[in-house]
Design goal:
The complex is a heterotrimer. The radius of gyration of chain B is 30 Å and the shape is globular. Chain B is built from 18 helices and 34 strands. In chain B, the strands form twelve sheets. In chain B, strands 10-7-6-18-29 form a five-stranded parallel sheet, covered by helices on one side. Chain B has a five-stranded parallel sheet with strand order 20-27-21-22-23. In chain B, helix 12 packs parallel to helix 13. Chain B is an alpha/beta fold. Chain C is of the alpha/beta class. Chain C has one domain: Rossmann fold (3-Layer(aba) Sandwich), CATH 3.40.50. Chain C is built from four helices and four strands, in the order E-H-E-H-E-H-E-H. Chain C is globular. The chains are: A alpha/beta, B alpha/beta, C alpha/beta. The interface between B and C is large, with 52 and 49 residues.
């Protein structure tokens, strides 16, 4: 298998260290080669493109693309924000010769920017088929119902990201189901998590997070699966704040897509950094370890709506 | 040769951007003996001015620079005929649609108008007198589609004494109107007003009703169409079936109930609905045990009249018609894929308004008791969402369904009448109630029946504790709203009936990107198509309410009756003609002719040459280009005319 | 610039009418000649137009499959495609000739075609 250029970004080297750990571990297990970009720099995040007038929001990712493009055909950025920034920059560079020239001047060599940019879901989709995963997973995650949560950065703006269906993203589903787990329709899969409003207006984030988690709980999901460190932070780190603010007691594990794949492949929860999360995944792990803690609820709770497309049966109801 | 040039000002429509005096200066061209500008050429004084000029100046040919010839060519041909000229000695130049309306710069528009007028003069100079002939017409009309529009058209035509064949794809006539409970704004019972019309159509001596039938192929042209109609095998002999429904009762195979829009269940063999016309059972093989497993035969056993025939095959008959009325209607837009936010069809209690009609209807699967599909409970909170698949560019459906606002108001009223303790909420974009009594009706829904109207779109519906949470915005208050609903009704937009585009291609009529069929002119020829003898009625042309469909159906009927009333038709003289003395007899023209209009004639020396059968030629001119020695020529569009017109521009 | 457009009566001519009814502004170089069908257009007429100094020739008819005369536009497509390939051999830039399909309801598309074609030929001048 080919090696990918790997852009970790700041989150994966700090607050989302377990995302990095689990990603490298799963990639290694699947035989996917990763070359971390030499001397990578900040993707620009929110401040560079939105709060600084010039082209810094394009130039910063452009430098990463340039370095990555040396000897690699594709680059992976597991952080949805980094992925989004790099795709945006590539889009703007493709549209403006002037911008390309300007960047080339700064780099002092002709800019390489056309490397393919992948997010983590895209990468795994490409490297392992659901059938192959199912074979290795041996139904390990059977009994779980996992909510897929995409947030916004992976798919929007749709024309630039050109990934999945922005109104109804489904790309995580085939691999999740291959783990043996169930993954029902989660209506809040692309609802806003509150993003970086956590700093300026925390109540917005708490309110948004509360609803996403509550709906997932109502629908009988065992965990919410994400591929974005910021979504993860708003749902996991802030879950205790949500509980405190509203006087409720949510306990919904928030797992990274890479961690779920790792569990399916039989890697240990500790190695995958699952204990690094604020909300404990103990119950969930017990459920799949073969000795279910709570024998009273072998499947999922009663409130889950089993989606059906038919309207039949009403005749008898009358 | 004495040519007259008339430049129309069309009020200011042309004169605002084209200096018509300068355009009339094309009058200085060779052979032009008269030129003038006229304020409204198509008006009575305008036509009079042309006729006077022709007489006074002894003009032999006329060029009229005005609007599109698609608009007034016939008008002016008649005018010059009244002055004694051959109608084809008039040529129109389009300086409105192709010039004054699309250019704002006076110099550009005037220059182009001068060029176009000169081109017209060059062209008319090469024109020859043409004479049309008459052909007899077939006095029978084909009506395609048996909804309210088709029924109305068929009855009107039949009452005028012309025989009609009505072809309906489904097992019964009645269309979507038969599915409705009540109609706005009068709350008339829909089937009470429609059923008698259905029966009348079936019993009318002049109407031949063919259900389970489709149009296979269409040949011929206005006055004389030849149509192959396929009657699909239903395994029931229509003449023998009495509609007793014993087969349906005993049938062991369940099947979806198509008449009830998928709400409830039916059997593989069934009468479509109790008021169906004709009241005949039909068998759906894809659900039938006899056909799936190869053995059953229950219906055949219980049928006392021996009407079941498993071996029945499709039957194709060929009939001739003078005119065709297309009334294929609409179907509700399938919203499921485009609206994942509304559950994409996964929540049983999110239904379309047509399905809700069936729940409201006394003849529906719940006997008129409103019960939600998931658990049969009576809903207390009902949310209506308008414009699902209408006025929504993000799903590629920008147009208005034109009836949604009205039937939502109706359904909100009926909900309250069925369940007095219920509360309805309506999410809307605008309330479009432009019809007689319509605005008052929507007000009543709010004031008397307490429906709460919220101006805004719904962003998401999700299930929660056995209810549906509806998240939306009230754009008037700027607030986000969340409603706990028991039932959500989506006002799904209009889509053209399945296969409308395919039928249009068979009929050679045009249709738009949504497969709604195109009228010939949006204002003045609203029921005609671009193909002579084919008329449109009802929602196949675009979203329409019942009165609109009925009115258009009567208009289409009047057009068909008018067309056939004379018993014969004038044919277009713009057909191809062969210069027999120079024809080499290669018959390349015959190879390319789409209408088999070329025949071989043998001279006394045995040499074969081509000849055009005028009554078969449609005047496309494909042969004109194919002819190696260029001796077959399309009258009215001869090589000489086209070259003259082209060279005049480049002069 | 003198541009000449040969349009079939049933689709494209009506489409151009629709653009007019909708008042969609267009450059004024194109002069439309009405034809019953694109199948009536003789490639020799187009060559003649170029010979006599036309800056560009545009042919437009019904979309394939929608021809008023069943298959006139298929004949046109074959003939015009061949012509398009031959033009450079005569020393005529292929950008000066275009054939396209515009239906009666595509007024906006017609205006776009005129815009694009005019711009394309102008850039050669």
């Amino acid at each position: 298998m080919s090696a990918y250029s790997y852009f970790p970004g700041c989150s994966l080297t700090s607050s989302a260290g377990e995302y990095d750990t689990s990603f490298r571990l799963v990639a290694g297990t699947l035989g996917i080669g990763l070359d971390e970009i030499n001397d990578w720099n900040c993707c620009g995040a929110s401040p560079a493109p939105h709060h600084w007038g010039g082209n810094l929001g394009v130039m910063l990712p452009a430098r990463n693309l340039h370095i990555a493009g040396y000897g690699h055909e594709a680059m992976v950025a597991p952080c949805a924000g980094c992925y989004n920034r790099h795709k945006n920059a590539q889009h703007e560079l493709a549209a403006s010769a002037e911008l390309r020239e300007q960047t080339s001047r700064i780099l002092r060599e002709p800019l390489r920017y056309q490397i393919e940019i992948l997010n983590l879901v895209e990468l795994f989709d490409r490297e392992i088929s659901p059938e192959a995963l199912a074979e290795r997973a041996q139904g390990r995650l059977e009994g779980l119902n996992l909510a897929t949560y995409y947030g916004c950065l992976l798919t929007r703006p749709a024309k630039i990201m050109n990934f999945d269906n922005a109104r109804n993203p489904v790309s995580m589903k085939p691999l999740l189901r291959a783990t043996g787990a169930q993954s029902d329709h989660f209506p809040f899969k692309s609802e806003c998590c509150g993003s970086y409003m956590g700093l300026a207006k925390k109540e917005i984030v708490l309110r948004a997070g509360r609803r996403i988690i509550e709906v997932a709980k109502d629908l009988g999901f065992d965990a919410i699966i994400t591929a974005c460190p910021l979504c993860h932070q708003n749902l996991d780190l802030r879950q205790s704040q949500i509980n405190k603010t509203y006087g409720i007691s949510l306990e919904m594990p928030i797992l990274y897509f890479s961690q779920v794949l790792g569990l399916a492949l039989g890697l240990s929860a500790d190695d995958l950094g699952i204990d690094a999360h604020m909300v404990s995944a103990r119950k969930l792990l017990a459920k799949i370890s073969g000795s279910a803690v709570d024998p009273a609820s072998p499947a999922k709770s009663g409130d889950a709506t089993e989606p059906t497309a038919t309207l039949s049966g009403i005749g008898e109801a009358s | 040769m004495r040519i007259g040039v008339f430049v129309c000002q069309c009020g200011t429509n042309i004169a605002a951007t084209v200096d018509t005096e300068k355009a009339a200066a094309a009058g200085s061209l060779r052979d032009v003996h008269h030129a003038e500008t006229i304020q409204y050429t198509c008006s009575d004084p305008g036509q009079r001015a042309i006729i006077d000029a022709i007489r006074e100046k002894e003009l032999t040919r006329v060029v009229i620079a005005a609007c599109s010839p698609r608009m007034h060519e016939t008008t002016f041909r008649r005018a010059v005929t009244r002055a004694g000229l051959n109608p084809f000695m008039m040529d129109m130049v389009n300086i409105r649609e192709h010039c004054s309306w699309v250019h704002s710069d006076v110099d550009t528009a005037t220059g182009k108008a001068i060029d176009l007028t000169s081109m017209g003069v060059a062209r008319v100079r090469k024109q020859a007198s043409l004479f049309s002939s008459k052909v007899p017409v077939t006095n029978r009309v084909l009506v395609i589609g048996g909804g309210v529009a088709g029924i109305q058209a068929a009855l009107d035509i039949a009452d005028a004494g012309l025989p009609v064949t009505m072809v309906e794809r489904g097992p019964s006539i009645g269309g979507n109107m038969a599915r409705l409970d009540k109609t706005f704004p009068t709350l008339d019972c829909s089937s009470c007003i429609l059923t008698p019309r259905m029966v009348e159509a079936n019993q009318h001596e002049q109407i031949d009703l063919m259900v389970n039938s489709e149009v296979d192929t269409v040949r011929g042209h206005v006055g004389n169409f030849e149509v192959d109609i396929r009657k699909k095998a239903t395994c029931v002999i229509e003449e023998k079936c009495t509609g007793c429904m014993i087969c349906q009762e005993k049938c062991p195979s369940r099947a979806p109930d198509e008449f009830n829009a998928g709400v409830g269940e039916s059997k593989a063999i069934s009468v479509p609905f109790p008021q169906a016309v004709p009241l005949v059972a039909n068998l759906r093989k894809e659900h039938c045990r006899q056909f799936i497993r190869g053995k059953c035969g229950v219906c055949k056993k219980v049928c006392k009249s021996g009407a079941i025939d498993y071996e029945q095959e499709d039957e194709v008959t060929t009939e001739r018609f003078g005119a065709i009325v297309v009334a294929t209607g609409y179907e509700p837009y399938d919203w499921r894929e485009a609206y994942p936010d509304y559950g994409g069809g996964q929540y049983p209690d999110v239904i379309t308004s047509l399905q809700y009609e069936r729940l409201l209807s006394a003849s529906g699967p719940t006997g008129g008791h409103v019960r939600r599909p998931s658990d049969g409970e009576e809903p207390r909170q009902v949310v209506f969402i308008s414009c699902v698949g209408s006025r929504d560019e993000s799903v590629g459906r920008p147009f208005c369904c034109s009836v949604g606002c009205m039937y939502i108001a109706k359904q909100a009223i009926l909900t309250k009448e069925h369940i007095p303790e219920s509360q309805s909420y309506v999410f809307y974009i605008d309330i479009r109630a432009g019809g007689k009594g319509y605005e008052e009706f929507t007000r009543r829904a709010q004031k008397e029946y307490g429906a709460v109207y919220l101006r805004g779109r719904v962003g998401k519906i999700y299930p929660s504790k056995g209810k549906l949470m509806v998240m939306g915005t009230d754009t008037l208050s700027g607030e986000q709203v969340e409603i706990e609903a028991d039932l959500v009704v989506l006002a799904a937009g209009f889509a053209a009936a399945e296969g409308a585009g395919e039928l249009a291609r068979k009929l050679n009529i045009s249709y738009d990107q949504y497969e709604f069929l195109s009228e010939s002119h949006p204002k003045l020829r609203p029921v005609e198509t671009n193909t002579g003898g084919i008329f449109l009625a009802g929602a196949c042309q675009g979203p329409k309410d019942i009165p609109g469909s009925v009115a258009q159906a009567s208009a289409a009927a009047a057009k068909a009756i008018g067309l056939l009333s004379k018993g014969e038709l004038e044919t277009s003289p713009m057909v191809a003609a062969v210069n027999q003395t120079r024809c080499t007899g290669c018959f390349k023209c015959r190879d390319v002719c789409p209408y088999n209009a070329i025949e071989a004639v043998e001279a006394r020396d045995g040499h074969q040459t081509a000849r055009v059968v005028d009554s078969l030629c449609h005047g496309c001119g494909v042969c004109n280009v194919a002819c190696p020695p260029a001796v077959i020529s399309l009258k009215g569009y001869t090589d000489n005319q086209l070259i003259a017109e082209t060279l005049e521009l480049l002069r | 610039m003198k541009l000449i457009g040969f349009l079939c009566n049933w689709c494209s001519y009506a489409g151009a009418d629709m653009a007019g009814t909708s008042r969609i502004q267009q450059p004024g170089d194109l002069h439309i000649v009405r034809m019953p069908c694109t199948g009536r257009i003789n490639p020799l007429l187009i060559l003649k137009a170029f010979q006599e100094g036309a800056d560009g020739v545009l042919v437009s008819g019904c979309h394939p499959g929608d021809c008023h005369y069943n298959d006139g536009n298929y004949y046109a497509r074959r003939r015009l495609e061949l012509l398009a390939r031959m033009l450079p051999a005569f020393g005529i830039a292929s950008e000066r000739f275009q054939y396209t399909w515009v239906s009666a309801s595509e007024g906006a598309r017609w205006a776009q075609v005129v815009d694009d074609f005019t711009e394309r030929v102008r850039s050669l001048q």
